[in-house]
Design brief:
Blueprint: H1 2-22, E1 28-33, E2 36-41, E3 44-48, H2 76-80, E4 85-88, H3 98-103, E5 110-112, H4 117-122, E6 128-130, E7 134-137, E8 140-147, H5 152-158, E9 161-167, E10 174-176, H6 184-193, E11 197-201, H7 219-227, E12 233-237, H8 249-258, E13 266-267, E14 274-276
Parallel strand pairs: 3-4, 4-5, 5-6, 10-11, 11-12, 12-13
Antiparallel strand pairs: 1-2, 1-14, 2-3, 7-8, 8-9, 9-10
Helix pairs in contact: 7-8
Length: about 280
């Protein structure tokens, strides 16, 4: 009888120990503000597109008010503490600003698109690397995919932008679309990578003088993406933080209701909100 009790006790102890040792590896995504994300993935902390400026520190892009239009809800030291990797989709100020360049340690590991190589060299980041296609980093497969930041003449002005796909054993596949309008290429990426989560920049941004041309997805394009998203849950960000973004959380929510999109399918987080990611 004592042996049975001892065996049960050891089993319970091992189960408790296993739970404790894995408690920190459960993946989460936290929206900091706009497109800035903290992703805990595969036991690593990944910071995406850091815009760390205080409210009103950057010029207006729509002639309405200076950007960002809201303050950070998290302390900066909490955002950058123990970051293992920074992913940058492109270097517009709302994705990598002067504050981020000044605050982040210049030796931090950073992955970026080929078009931004010279930028990070000038900024003095000595551990920044170009991601051409894909890489295996700490057992996490990171794929870079192209994005189309507008159309026509506006696309030429906006330049190159990228997205990233994260894949790892026992982790959900996460597709970070980046600044992009809805295109067939994004549809192909969804089919290729079969993500569990798609993070989409849904602010419907437009620049002065080209108000009829969206440079990122708006309500209608986000609905189109959801229609082709397969099993993935869609996390919509890049709203209510910049003066040139016309799509708001409220307008996107209303559009989702009209399209009968359930709340489990489309997640619209508030600044600072944490989302648990599951397979």
């Amino acid at each position: 009888m004592k042996k049975v009790i001892l065996a049960v006790a050891l089993t319970l102890s091992a189960a408790i120990s296993f739970g404790q040792s894995n408690s920190g590896t459960k993946p989460i995504l936290q929206l900091v503000r706009n497109a800035t994300l903290i992703i805990e993935y595969g036991g690593k902390k990944i910071l995406v597109d850091p815009m760390l400026s205080p409210k009103g520190a950057i010029e207006s892009w729509a002639g309405i008010q200076k950007n960002p239009t809201v303050d950070l809800k998290l302390p900066i030291n909490e955002i950058v503490k123990n970051v293992d990797l920074v992913l940058v989709t492109h270097t517009h100020d709302d994705h990598f600003d002067k504050a981020a360049s000044q605050i982040l340690d210049k030796s931090i590991e950073l992955l970026h698109q080929p078009a931004d190589k010279e930028f990070f060299e000038k900024e003095g980041f000595n551990n920044a690397a170009v991601l051409e296609d894909n890489t295996l980093w700490n057992d996490i497969s990171i794929h870079r995919v192209e994005g189309q930041h507008g159309s026509g003449e506006v696309l030429k002005m906006m330049g190159k932008t990228s997205g990233f796909v994260l894949k790892a054993k026992n982790q959900p596949t996460v597709y970070i679309v980046g600044d992009a309008i809805w295109t067939e290429d994004i549809k192909k990426n969804i089919k290729k990578f079969d993500p569990d989560y798609i993070v989409v920049n849904s602010g419907g941004a437009r620049i002065q003088g080209y108000e009829n041309t969206a440079i990122i997805m708006d309500e209608a394009q986000t609905m189109a993406l959801i229609g082709e998203s397969g099993k993935a849950k869609v996390i919509a960000v890049h709203m209510d933080a910049l003066d040139h973004c016309r799509t708001t959380r409220s307008s996107l929510s209303k559009e989702a209701v009209e399209f009968n999109i359930c709340k489990d399918k489309l997640i619209i987080p508030q600044d600072g909100e944490v989302i648990a990611l599951s397979l």
